Amino acid sequence: MSFFSGAHIVLLIVVLLGFSPSFYLRSAFHHTAGLPAVLYIHGVVLTGWFSLTVLQAWLIRTRRLRLHRQLGYFGAGYAAIVIVLGTVANLRLISEIDSPADGENIVVWGNFFTLVMFAAFVTLAVRFRARPEAHKRLMLLVSLAAAVFLGVTGIGYHFLHG
Prior knowledge:
Layout: H1 3-18, H2 20-24, H3 37-61, H4 65-95, H5 104-127, H6 132-161
Helix pairs in contact: 1-3, 1-6, 3-4, 4-5, 5-6
């Protein structure tokens, strides 16, 4: 297994474990209130992103380059969906902020920053797709940006709301 395959697998596992209490296994952790539909959709789409990166790394490792490239076009469009839903989820968070002094302001700005980084790294990864050494590093940075987005949102929300 390559470093990049392993890194994508680790990121998927971290997302699955980290969001088990608040998303995947929400009812098992005695959360009585449901999540808004947009957050369910956002969570499913981001889970799909991390799963897609593991699949793409596996396709490279098993030398299925043609399928990897075909799926890459889908992935570029899927990244746009991730960005749109991340923005929508962040705008929903903004609607809950009561004052400029609210602690969630830093979470909002952190989210917007990581969405910009995600978009920039995806754009660069698509641009340099013919250069595998650059492309695979940029794709890992894309997933790290997404993981930071999830971490800032999840940790920030739980820190502020208990």
